[in-house]
Amino acid sequence: MAQAIAFYFIAACILGFAVLVVTTRDTVHSVLFLVLDFLFVAALYVLLGAQFLAAIQVLVYAGGIVVLYLFVVMLVNLKRPPEAHEDPHRRTKLGFGLAAAVLLELGAIAVYGFVNPAAPVPATAAIPVSGNTEQVGWLLYTSYLIPFEVASMLLLVAMIGAIVLAKREL
Amino acid sequence: MFDTNELVLNMGPQHPSTHGVLRVVLRLDGEKVVDCDVVIGYLHRGIEKLSENRNWTQIVLLTDRMDYVAAATSNVGYCETVEKLLQLEVPRRARYVRTILCELQRIASHCLWVGTHAMDIGAMTVFLYAFRERELILDLFEEFCGARLTYNSMRIGGLPQDIPPGWAKKVLEFCTIMETKVGEYEELLTHNRIWLERTKGIGVISGPEATGLGLCGPALRGSGVARDVRKDEPYAAYGEMEFDVPIGTNGDTYDRYLVRMEEFRQSLRIIRQATEGIPEGPIVGKVPRLIKPAAGETYHAIESPKGELGYFIVSDGKSTNPYRFRVRPPSFCNLQGLRRLVRGHLVADVVALIGSIDIVLGEVDR
Amino acid sequence: MIDQVLIPLLKILIVLNATLVAVTYMVLLERKVIAWAQSRLGPMRVGPYGVLQPIADAIKLMIKEDITPVRADKWVFTAAPIISMVPALIVYAVIPFGPTISLFGRKVSLYITDINVGLLYIVSVASVGVYGIILAGYSSNSKYPLLASLRASAQLISYEVAVTLTLVSVILMAGSLSMVEIVNAQYNQHVWFVFAQPFAFVLVLIGGLAETNRAPFDLPEAEQELTGGFHTEYSGMRFALFFLAEYANMIVVSSVVTTLFLGGWLPPLPNVAALHFLYYVPSWTWFLIKSFVFLYLFIWIRATLPRYRYDQLMRLGWKVLIPLAILNLVVTGIVKVMLL
C-alpha cells in the first residue's frame, strides 16, 4: 500500500517535471527541472530495490552529465523573447500525427498485454552472487560484456572527437 | 577552430594584490594575457615640484615618502647627491652608520617583499613571519631616529644624531636572529613544489633584454647581469665592505626570488662588518649653515632594495632651493618591464609577476 | 514503533545539531589554528579566548541585510546556497560513529542508517552539491562570478573522478560498499586500511582537499586575482550557508577518510588482546579524535602551502591523480586475486 502511494507520487512528480522541462521559457530552469527528474527516477530505483542503480543514476546522470549540460546552457544563455521561439519551419500537424500514431501503438500493446497475459518468462540462470552491486557487476561482465565494451568504445570516440573539435594549439 | 574575442580585464586601483594603487588593464585571450596596460599616477603627490619650493634640508623628509618601505635609502641617496654637489666630505663614522641603516633597510624591504609575494601566491604564513622580523628592524630604527616608517634620518653631511649607546649591540643580536629566520622562510618556500611550479619559468627575461628595458636591482640581477651600484660605484662605506652580489641564471621569478633571499644574507654580512668596525669620530661633517651649492647639476645613484635609485639635481647657485629635483625611481623603471613580462602568461601569474618585480607605488608615482 | 521512528529521529536530531554546532566552531578552530601558525592569537575578545566568536559571527550574519541583485534569477539565487548546504548535511546519514551498542537495555546502532551502497551514496550526494556552486555563479547575473563558478565546478567534478576511482580500491579491500561493513572488514583483516592502502590514503586526502575547495586548491575561492569568486553577490545568511557548507564538506571528508582508512570507531590495534583496555574509551570518541586529526591537518595545510594555479590544479587531477588511482586499483585487484 505504502509502496503504491510512493510510486504514484514519484511518477506524478516525474511526469510533472518532464512537462516543465519542455515548457519552461528559461533554458537553465529547464535543465534544473531535468535534474529533479533524474533525482526522482533514482527514487523510483530505490523503490524497486535497486539501490546501486539509484546511486549511480545520481552520481553519473544528475551529478555529471547534466552538470555539463548546464555549463553549455549557461555559457550560451538562451534567453530569447517568446516570439523568437516560434519556429517558422515547424510542422505542427505532422508532429501531432506522428505522436498520435505512437500513442496508438503503445495503447494497442498495453491492451494486448492486458488481454493475453504473457507467458511466464523462463527463469534466468541463477547468478552466483547476491547483493545489489555484485549482481549488477556479475551480469555486466558476463552476459552483457560486449555491449559494455562497445559502450565504452563509444564514449572514448566521443571524448576524442570533443577534444579534436575544441582544442586550439595545445 | 572557434574564434574567441579578447576580453579586457581591469585590475585595481583597489586590488588586494597590486601593491598599492596600481591599475593594470589586461587584454586576455581566454585565460592568457595578450597585452597589458599599466596605469599609474594614483599616488602622485608632486614631490619633485614641491622640492623646488623647499630648501635643501627640508627635502630630506620628502624623500622619505617616495619609497616608504625603504625610506632610509632614499634619504641616503638624496643626501649623497647634495654632498656630491657641495663637494662635501662625510666623516667615516657617518658613512658606516649610513651603511648599517641602508642594509637594515634592505632587509626590512625584502621582508615586506617576501611576505607580500608569498601571500599573493597563497602562502599566507610567510607574510606574518616576515612582518614579525620587520618589526624588529623598525624597533631599531625607532630607537635611532624616533620614527618607524618615515625616518628623516639623514642630514646633508652626516646624520642628525649619533647612534644611541647599546644600539650596535642590539643590531648584532638582530643579525643573529635574522639569520635563522631567513632559513625559516627558505624552508617554507624554496624547495616547495607548489612554489616552484608557481614561480619557475614565469616571467622569463634575458639579460640583454632586461638591460634594454632599463630594469635594475634584483630584477636585473635575476637575469644574470652583474650590475650592483654598491660594487660598481661604491658609495657610503661600501668600498670597505666585503660582500657578494647574488646573480641569477634563468631570469624567471624563481631566480629573482633566490637573488633576494641571498641578498638577505649578504646584507647581514655587511651589517656585521660595519657594526663591528664602526670607527670613532664626528657624526656630521663641516656643513655650512646655509646650504647653497654653486650652480651646477649632478646625478648620483645608490642601490636601494628595489634597484638603482638615482637623483638628478640642478642648482642655480642663487636660491636656497634646488632649481630642479628629479628622481630616477627603480620601481618606475622596473614597472616598464611588466608589460613585457606578462605576455603569454595566465591571469594568476600577473600577480606573481607584480610581486616579483617588487614595486612601491610611492616611488613610481612620487 | 520506537525502534522504527523515534530512535532514528532522535539520532537525526542529535547528528544534525552536533554537525551544525561543529561546523560553526570549525570556523573558530580554523582561525585559531592559522593564527597560532602565524605567531598570532586569533579571536580573543568575544568570550574567554574567543570561544563565543562563532556565535557573534552567526548573529552578525543573520541580522545583515539580505541583498539580491536586481536582475538575478530570484528562485535560483535563493536555492543555490540551500543546494550547497543540504548534500553536505544529509551525508551524515550513513557515517558510522560507532558500532551497535546497548544503551538503556536497547540495542542502538551509533549511526543513523547503514545502507548497502553507503559509500556510493556519499559520493553521489557530494556530486549533487556541485550544483550549488554552479547556480550561485549563474544566478548572480554577472560574467566573472559565472566564470569563477564554472571553474570551481570543473575542478570539483574532475577530482570526483579521481577520488571515486581511488575509493574503488578500498571497496575491493573491504568487499562491500557499506560503511559499517568497511569498518568491520578492517577489524576482521586486523589492519587499518591506511597500512594496507597507503597510496589510496594519500590520493583520497589530496582529492578530498580539492573536492572541498581547500588550499592549496582554493584558487576559485581565493579569486582576489580575478574577482570575488562565485559568492561575490551573496551577503548575510546566504553567504554564511556557503561557508558552512564548505566546512561541513570538510568534516564529511575527514569522517569518510577516518572510516575508510583509520578504522572508523576502532581503537588502534583493535585485535591485540593486551590493548583491550582501549575499548573503555567509547567508540565514538575514537572516531571523533581521528576525524579531528584530519581536520587539523586540513587547516595546517592551508596555513602552510601556497596555492596552485588553476591549470596546474587541473593537470594534477587529470594527469597525475587519475592514472595513479587506476594504477592503485589494478595493483590492488591483482594482489587481491592472486595472493588473498
Explain what the structure shows.
The complex is a heterotrimer of chains A (170), B (366) and C (340). Chain A has 170 residues and is mostly helical. Chain A is 74% helix and 0% strand. Chain A has 6 helices and no strands. In chain A, helix 1 (2-23) runs antiparallel to helix 2 and helix 2 (27-47) packs antiparallel against helix 3 (51-76). Chain A is extended, with a radius of gyration of 21 Å. The model of chain A has no long low-confidence stretch (mean pLDDT 85). Chain C has 12 helices and 2 strands. The N and C termini of chain C lie far apart (44 Å). With 340 residues, chain C is mainly α. In chain C, strands 1-2 form a two-stranded antiparallel ribbon. The model of chain C has no long low-confidence stretch (mean pLDDT 85). The chains are: A mainly alpha (170), B mainly alpha (366), C mainly alpha (340). Chains in contact: A-B, A-C, B-C. The B-C interface holds B 9, 15-17, 31, 118, 120-125, 127-129, 132, 188-189, 192, 194-195, 197-198, 346-351 and C 34, 37-40, 215-216, 218-219, 222, 224-226, 303-312.
List keywords for this structure.
heterotrimer; B: 366 residues; mainly alpha; 3-stranded antiparallel beta sheet; 14 helices; 6 strands; C: 340 residues; two-stranded antiparallel sheet; 65% helix; 2% strand
Could you give a quick summary of the protein structure above?
The complex is a heterotrimer of chains A (170), B (366) and C (340). Chain B is mainly α and 366 residues long.
Task: Tell me, rounded to a whole number, the average pLDDT of chain B.
Answer: 88
How large is the radius of gyration of chain A?
21 Å
Q: What is the count of structural domains of chain A?
A: 2
Measured by DSSP, the beta-strand proportion of chain A falls in under 5%
The whole-number mean of residue pLDDT values of chain A reads 85
> Shape of chain B, please?
globular
Taken as a percent bin, the fraction of beta residues of chain B is: 5-15%
What is the string of helix and strand elements of chain A? HHHHHH
Count all strands of chain B and give the number. Answer: 6
CATH topology (fold) name of the largest domain in chain A: Four Helix Bundle (Hemerythrin (Met), subunit A)
Poorly predicted runs of chain B: none
So what's the CATH class of the largest domain in chain A? Mainly Alpha
- The name of the CATH superfamily of the largest domain in chain A reads NADH-ubiquinone/plastoquinone oxidoreductase chain 6, subunit NuoJ
| CATH architectural category of the largest domain in chain A | Up-down Bundle
Number of helices of chain B: 14
Please describe the biggest sheet of chain A, giving its number of strands, its sense, and whether it closes into a barrel. none
**How much helicity do the residues of chain B have?**
40-55%
